[in-house]
Amino acid sequence: MKAFIKAISYYLPPKVLTNKDLCDEFSGLTESDIVKKTGIKKRHITSDGVVGSDLGFFAAEKLFIEHSIDKSEIDYIIFCTEGLDYKGPVTACILQDRLQLNQNCGAIDLPYGCTGFAYCISIAKALIESGQAKNILAITSDIPSSVIHPEDLELRMLFGDAGAATLISSTPKEEIAIGAFSFGTDGSGSENLIVKGSGTRGPVDEAWLEKYKEVGGLKYGRMQMNALEIFNFALRTVPPLVQNILEKNHLKKEDIDLFVFHQANSFLLSVLRRKLKIEEDKFFIYMENVGNTVSASIPIALYEAMKAGKAKKGDKVLIAAFGIGYSWSGTVFTI
Amino acid sequence: MDIHEFTKQIEGEFEDVEPGTLTPTTNYREIKSWSSMYALIVIAFVDANFDVQLSADDLRNSQTIEDIYKIVMSKKSS
After folding, report:
1. How high is the ipTM of this complex?
2. May I ask the CATH class of domain A182-334?
3. Chain B touched by A35 (CB under 8 Å)
4. Rounded to two decimals, what is the model's pTM?
């Protein structure tokens, strides 16, 4: 039994943070500086109290409507985020109820960041192809804005909140075929991109809340990024990842019609594109209106690439996800 | 690539820098339009042309284009 991606939808929270908003707040900054540095003009952010599973819920509802999906057929839900509702119960259980999915439904959380979408699809594929499930709803949804200190301009320029929902199914109709996956991990880089105070190691305490009192306490933690090291990590890791994905799928670079990478930062993406000698029209960037949306970035870019006719029926699309961990993974989709 | 060519090419990568501003002994952080973006540009340039990775520490420990050039050359030969 083969697994296919049947449908993708995404949801953005209504509140928008524009470059002008940032320039009004930070003196000496210009809108064109931000665009030059990140390729981003605006990003959507959640209002206080709205969490990742809310965006995921809306993305899933949108998926059911946009693609006329009979949700009673869903027999597994994977919820991928770095902002779970609780340590227990599993947030996917809460979403099963909220989305009114069948009770004969498996449910797991996948606390993953930028590589999350690739992990979701690989797990869904494994579940389907081993006969354990037939229709899997994979939600990748993140709210990085909730763990960014207002003074961390670099992070605020870059990250946006979003939820994406993908249906992976065993239906052997003409759907998006999923190729072989490549994976990689290097935990020695964990400190270079990390949300401090977000778990059991060094949790938020009184001193923390006092320190960040002026900005609401940063009670979900604070994201810290060493931009130079992350940049180096991507330059070092992504080219071999792409090579590995091609080898695992018995393809050459020329066989790929479109490359869709994790939408980390458009400057980094263009450096990677040049390094990999990929033509500009075969390399999709969708960041201008959404920013880096962590685990939702690849499904959003894929959705937009298909909508814009950049990824057409029969095309081979290589996806490469990389980031926090360090972690990296990717595969080839045949549209 | 000698130090002068290296300096000239890096200068070419910096969009907002007037030609002739950068010399091997310029403290690059004192360039008027210097921003953290330039550090990424230097890393990308060195990666593309020398297949060498400059770390955050390498940049922290350097002041001038010549310092960077020396680090690149020593990493290249090691």
Report:
1. 0.87
2. alpha beta
3. no
4. 0.95
Quote the pLDDT of residue A159: 97
Cα A188 vs. chain centroid, distance in angstroms? 22
Task: Select from A38, A193, A228, A278 the residue whose CB has the most chain B CBs within 10 Å, as the one to mutate to test that interface.
Answer: A228
CA distance A37 to A31: 10
d(C-alpha A277, C-alpha A130), whole Å: 37
Residues in chain B with CB shorter than 8 Å from the CB of A189 are: none
Q: Which CATH architecture fits B3-77?
A: Orthogonal Bundle (1.10)
- Is the model's pLDDT at B15 over the cut of 80? no
Q: How far apart are CA A293 and CA A144, in angstroms?
A: 8
Question: Which residue among A154, A231, A274 sits closest to B43, beta carbon to beta carbon?
Answer: A231
In the 3-class helix/strand/coil scheme, how is A95-124 assigned residue by residue?
A: HHHHCCCCCCCEEEEECCCCCHHHHHHHHH
Q: How many helices (H) and strands (E) does chain B have?
A: 4, 0
Subunit contact B53:A232, Cβ cutoff 8 A = yes
CA A316, CA A179: separation in Å to the nearest integer?
10
Provide the 3-class DSSP secondary structure of residue A11: strand
